């Protein structure tokens, strides 16, 4: 593209893409995740398994630096002008995912979220702003300003689950979460992560507790697409009940988690959106990075 200033191939860009890959791998390997693909089973999915997720991640990562580069080279533009330029990259990523998975949607939500986050990181770096959680999420929110109103409010013939669920129930899904600057991640998941890491330092247990909190409060359109609003509320109530009884740290916490896994599988329910936000939480937990990390010392 002529006239576009691309960033130098800095270690920072490669570090961020590596952090994204690690976050996605940690998410799918975490076990037991109720209703989701993990090392114990394929959750409520007939068309997915662990190997497919790993192949999908391997297919996605080489495409992700483009989001950072576009965020960097468009740093002088108004944020709302950037999202339409990111969309083709996102759709190409989805095509790459579907090619790698034989047509199975493993990371649609993750591509959207991480494409925005990497573009935000590129924008902040070009603007010499600190790479920390708050400015990163604020930049994502600015990219997506008006997205729900623009893409969902006027829908007459819904083509996707997300569009249908907005029309029927006003659920905003991945778009709403991104436009809010990942509010659920910042207000629920990251505080839970920090609290658990301070309390026990056990990363696996902290991630399971984060997932439970996300399942308890996130309006996950994957659940609503599979089980209607009743299915979404069932999972939220079950997760809230488990947390109320002490969560994963309770003496019978893990046994209750396995039982919830079996219950969601029996009901064909999969909290895929919460799984995506779990990966976003793991990614953001690494920030501040770069100069901001040194400045934070
Ligand atoms: C914006 C997209 C992902 C919305 O897709 P869709 O209409 O199916 O919406 P929906 O929100 O139901 O689901 C998408 C995925 O998001 C995840 N998800 C569901 N609910 C939530 C939630 N509350 N919070 C976060 N993620 C969620 C699920 O894994 C789901 O598979 C899609 O339309 C799209 O534009 N994809 C191309 C990628 C792109 O635009 N990238 C450019 C920005 S980088
Ligand atoms: N470990 C995981 N297991 C299952 N789904 C996950 C996992 N991690 C993330 N997800 C998310 O959940 C989505 C898969 O859920 P689901 O299969 O309900 O979506 P779908 O493919 O759109 O629906 P359907 O399979 O009914 O056509 C993926 O797009 C992904 O965003």
TrEMBL record:
Task: State the UniProt keywords alphabetically.
Answer: ATP-binding, Nucleotide-binding, Transferase
As recorded in UniProt, coiled-coil segments are none
Task: Give the EC number(s) listed in the UniProt record.
Answer: 2.4.2.52
Does the entry feature the keyword Transferase, yes or no? yes
Q: Which domain of life is it from?
A: Bacteria
Single GO MF descriptor: triphosphoribosyl-dephospho-CoA synthase activity
- The answer to whether keyword Transferase applies is yes
InterPro entries cross-referenced by the UniProt entry:
CitG, TriPribosyl-deP-CoA_syn_CitG
Q: Which reaction does it catalyse?
A: 3'-dephospho-CoA + ATP = 2'-(5''-triphospho-alpha-D-ribosyl)-3'-dephospho-CoA + adenine
Q: Name one GO biological process term.
A: prosthetic group biosynthetic process
Describe the family membership recorded for this protein in Swiss-Prot or TrEMBL: Belongs to the CitG/MdcB family.
HAMAP family, alphabetized: CitG
Protein name, UniProt field: Probable 2-(5''-triphosphoribosyl)-3'-dephosphocoenzyme-A synthase
Name its species. Answer: Chimaeribacter californicus
């Amino acid at each position: 593209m002529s006239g576009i200033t691309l960033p130098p191939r800095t270690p920072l860009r490669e570090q961020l893409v590596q952090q994204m890959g690690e976050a996605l791998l940690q998410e799918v390997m975490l076990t037991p995740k109720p209703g989701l693909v993990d090392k114990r089973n394929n959750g409520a999915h007939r068309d997915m398994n662990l190997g497919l997720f790993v192949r999908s991640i391997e297919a996605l990562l080489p495409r992700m630096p483009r989001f950072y580069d576009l965020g960097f080279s468009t740093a002088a533009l108004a944020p709302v002008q950037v999202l339409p330029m990111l969309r083709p990259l996102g759709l190409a990523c989805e095509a790459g995912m579907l090619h790698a998975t034989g047509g199975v949607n493993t990371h649609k939500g993750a591509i959207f979220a991480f494409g925005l986050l990497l573009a935000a990181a590129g924008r902040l770096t070009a603007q010499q702003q600190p790479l920390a959680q708050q400015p990163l999420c604020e930049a994502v929110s600015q990219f997506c300003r008006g997205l729900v109103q623009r893409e969902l409010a006027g829908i007459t013939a819904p083509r996707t689950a997300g569009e249908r669920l907005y029309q029927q129930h006003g659920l905003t899904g991945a778009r709403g979460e991104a436009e809010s600057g990942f509010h659920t991640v910042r207000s629920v998941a990251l505080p839970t992560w920090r609290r658990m890491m301070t309390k026990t330092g056990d990363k696996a247990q902290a991630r399971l507790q984060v997932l439970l909190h996300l399942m308890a409060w996130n309006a996950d359109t994957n659940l609503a697409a599979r089980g209607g609003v009743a299915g979404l509320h069932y999972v939220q109530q079950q997760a809230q009940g488990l947390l109320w009884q002490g969560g994963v740290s309770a003496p019978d916490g893990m046994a209750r988690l396995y039982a919830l896994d079996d219950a969601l599988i029996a009901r064909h329910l999969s909290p895929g959106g919460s799984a995506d936000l779990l990966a976003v939480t793991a990614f953001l937990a690494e920030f501040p990075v770069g100069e901001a990390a040194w400045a934070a010392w």
